Amino acid sequence: MLTQFIADHGYWAVFAGSVLEGETVLVLGGFAAHQGYLSFLLVVACGAGGGAAGDLLFFFLGRRHGGALLERFPQWQPRARQVNRWLMRYQAGMIIGVRFMYGLRAAGPIAIGMSDIPAWRFLLFNLIGAALWATLIAAAGYLFGQTLQWLFTDIKRYEEAALLLIAAAAVVLALIRQLRKHS
C-alpha cells in the first residue's frame, strides 16, 4: 500500500529528493505529515538537510570544476553571470535566495562556488535558506492536505488518489520543463 510505503520510507525520500530539486517531494511530505504518516518537523528537517547538502555539493563542484562545468553546460553560462552580478551587491541574500529562483538551483551554487566567498559563509547562509525553503514548501503540502480535508469530509478515502495526482502533476511538469529545454 502506498501510504505504508510513505510511512516507512518517506523521510529518506524527502532527503534524497531535496538534494537535487525537492519541491515536489516536499509538497508530498507536507501532505503526508497532514495525514499523520510523517512528522512535519522531520519532513522540514530532512528537506532542509537534503537541500543544503545538494547545494554544498554544487558549491564545491563549482569551486573545483566550475569552468569545466560551464563549458560542458553552456546554457548555465548566462545564469552564472547573472548570479555573479547579484553576488557583488547582495551576497548573503543571494546565497539564501538562490534556491527560490527558478532555473538557478544547480547553476547558482556552482557560480557561488566559483566566487571568492568562503565556504563557511556559504554554508551558514545556505543553511538559513534551506530551512526557510523546506518550511515554506512543506507547509504548502500541509495546507493542501488541510484544504482537501475542508473540501472532502472523508479525506482518508481520497488520500492515495491525491498523492498520485501530486506525483503525476510533478512528472508532467518535469516533462514540460525538459521539452522546453530541448526546443
UniProtKB/TrEMBL annotation:
GO cellular component terms given for this protein: plasma membrane
Secretion signal span: none
Domain VTT: 22-142
Taxonomic lineage: Bacteria, Pseudomonadati, Pseudomonadota, Betaproteobacteria, Burkholderiales
Membrane found in the keyword field: yes
Keywords: Membrane, Transmembrane, Transmembrane helix
Top-rank taxon, per record: Bacteria
UniProt keyword Hydrolase, yes or no: no
Annotated protein name in UniProt: Membrane protein DedA, SNARE-associated domain
Transmembrane segments: 12-31, 37-62, 122-145, 157-176
InterPro entries: DedA_domain, VTT_dom
